[in-house]
Structure formats: structure tokens, C-alpha cells
Amino acid sequence: TDMNLKVLTKEDIIEIIKYLIELINSKADVDDIDHLSNRRVRTVGEQLSNQFAIGLTRMSRTIRERMNVRDNEVFTPIDLINAKTISSVINTFFGTNALSQFMDQTNPLAEITHKRRMSALGPGGLSRERAGFEVRDVHYTHYGRLCPIETPEGPNIGLISSLCVYGKINELGFIETPYRKVENGVVDISENGIIYLTAEEEEGKVIAQGNAPLNDDGSFIRSRVKSRQDADYPVVEPKRVGLMDVAPQQIASIAAS
Questions:
Q1: Whether the Cβ atoms of residue 213 and residue 249 lie closer than 8 Å to each other
Q2: HSE on the CB side for 95, CA within 13 Å?
Q3: pLDDT for the residue 1
């Protein structure tokens, strides 16, 4: 699909109807709401740009009002533009937003952990009271993306989590984690062999553990390899493996690893 296309097309409607028919006939799976392909991260930059948009809208309104009032007068842009409308919106965002916190700088580890924290609470998110067990629980797509260890105890458990060591957020807001490519049972151990995948792209792939013993050429030493495929953990022959973890600690966050 074209990334620049921002409206529904005929093809989209056809695909939606096809999917619904398959769903009725039990030929398609219902989307898992807790799967990380259905949950995106709203970064600070995105939220800040939304606030800028609000500020600019307010400013344009005040400019129009001032132009209407001073109909026949001669005026300069300085007379019309009031920058305080934008600065007040930004100050309000940083001062009163539910997710705005004073940075923990007890030590460098506390600081970097605080910066990498993810929250399901706040505007447009969940509330502690409404969040059930399923939302808080560890999902298999969290592997290499959200740390299963580092989460607070008490009412926020599972709602506030931490980004994994090698996890990163792509331009669409989905969390990616790195893997090594594997072809015909041989791992690409070069620098170019690492690819970052989202939870959706990783779906259905057989992934070997990061500490699986390898020969110098990248082939697996053992005839059976411990691996994972979605929520299952099969022991397979090397030819079935499509990807390999980059390191055993990629499951945890910086503080936990």
C-alpha cells in the first residue's frame, strides 16, 4: 500500500468485506487487541506536534478576529500575531499533562530508565480502574520489545513498562526488535545480517535463541534447535529456522539486563 494515501480506496472496502465474510465462515482470525501490531506508541514528539497544532489554530483565530476589528486601519504583522497563545499551550502541556513527570536523576541508570518508560495511561489511553488482567498480562509479542520484568507493583502493574535493550520505535509508532537473518540453516553473522522487525512482520516466523551454538561459518552445531514461533516453543531442525535473536538479553530492559 502507498504510505502517502490517507483516504479509504475501493480496494480497502473490498478487502474489509472479504475479511468480514471469512470471519463469519470461521476462515479468518479475530484480531488480538493485546498484540503489539494493534498497539502503537504515541511519542513525545507526536504529542507535542498535536499541541503545536492546537496553539496555531488558536493563533489563527485571534489573527482573524483582530483583522475583522481593525477593518480599515493600517497594521503590521506584529500587531496581529501574539506568540503567547502557542507558548501557553506548550507550557500547559508540560506543566499539567497526566504523563508529564519530573525526571528522576538519582543516577545515570535511573535517568535512562525513566526516559525509556512506556505508559498505557494518560490522555487517549486506559485508566487503572478499567484496565483488566489481559491488558496487563505479558504477551508473546512483548519479546524483545517490552520488558516482562520491569513494571511497578500495585495498581500500575503491566500498564507502565519499559522498552527492551535493543527495542526501537519506528516512524509509524510500532516497536521493532533486531534479529539475524537465517537461510538454509546458516545464520548471517555479518554486520548487514541484522534486520529490525515489528510484531506483525515477525508473525509466523521460527526464531532461534540468541545463545544457540554456531560454527564459524554461521551454521548451527546441533541438529535440533530450540526456537519460538508466536506463542509456541518448538525444537526444530536448522533448515526451518528463519531468524535468530541477536543476544540473550534482548528480552529485558536496560535496568533488568
A1: no
A2: 6
A3: 61
